[in-house]
Amino acid sequence: MGGTESIPGEGVSQDDLYREAVDHYGSSLDRLARAYEADSEMRRDLLQDIHLQLWRSFAQFDKRCSLRTWVYRVAHNVATGHVVRQSRIRKRLASIEEIEGMASHEQNEQVTSKNQALERLSTLIQRLKPLDRQIIILYLEGMDANSTAEITGLSAANIAMKVHRIKNILRRWFHEGGPHAG
Amino acid sequence: MPDEFPLNDPKKIWQEQPTEAIPMTLDEIRRKAHRLQMIARVVALAWIGFGFALCAGFARASARAHVVIPRIGWAIMSLWCLYGVYHAFKWIWPGRLPADATFSTSLEFYRKELERQRDYGWRLWRRSGLAWAFLGLAFLVVIPVVIGSLQNPRILVNAVPFCVMLGIWLVVFLSTRKRKQQELQQEIDELNAMDRGSR
Prior knowledge:
Oligomer: heterodimer
Structural class of chain B: mainly alpha
Structural class of chain A: mainly alpha
Radius of gyration of chain A: 18 Å
Low-confidence stretches of chain B: 1-5
Radius of gyration of chain B: 26 Å
Largest sheet of chain B: none
Largest sheet of chain A: none
Strand content of chain B: under 5%
Largest interface: A-B, 62 and 49 residues
Mean pLDDT of chain A: 83
Number of helices of chain B: 6
């Protein structure tokens, strides 16, 4: 395992890249793991796996994309693999479009505290299929459509359409008290 | 109080949630990566060793058999073990992280994962050469039973309940697998449509 191997032609080691990634995106990775795994023990394992794969991946980082894109791709893909392997969970997941059109009265109370709001947000995210989950996480992390498109492989137009739907859902869940309130 | 900050701002709520410390130090990551690679190598070596041992055992049984049909059966089983050893080396032996393993775009990665799950049964069957194992077993068990039943039909009658149970299991197994594969295929088609829309 070449922990201190330099990236070809760059003179930056795998360890340095990993440190830089963790300095800048460490808390984002923690939030990402929370979005993919509700169970705290399994979430810890997932987060460890994300860090491990991230460090390993830097042995092949060729700077064709930005460090941020690389970090998010690796992390999302590790987490997606985690969800896909748990096929029982995967079967219950829905797309953004399905949730938008869902006639559910689960969230029929207005949020009154920050914790309640976070819990509601986490519930929503954990109900989504992996690709849609990535889009909402990247939206919440403040990424624009082009960056999200680069990470996910979808077009910016497609992302913009999905983000529009996400905003509708969030408005219903946070401002109007529930999917069919108001 | 829906308009009070930050309850009406999901981005803020998301970004300001409490986070935990990074679960491992860099040294621990290196050690864990090294340990995982070692474990994977040991597992691969164990499978390879087991395959060679079985291969030698079956070859010995083939050499010792006095009747042609079991001899062929043992020989096929022995060759199947060699095939298994080759595939254990090819698929289980840990290599470097494949270039497309984790940093392909999410769409590609997700589709590949679903395809891998859809094809899992078929690949397992093909990679492990199970058809050869069943052929060997047919020579060792089925053909001798059929030949024996010509002299004593009771042997076949005794085998009927087992065959019926096997048949029921096969039908349930295949129909469940087919339904799962259809569900996965539907999701793959949705991703493909999404991808086409992106180009």
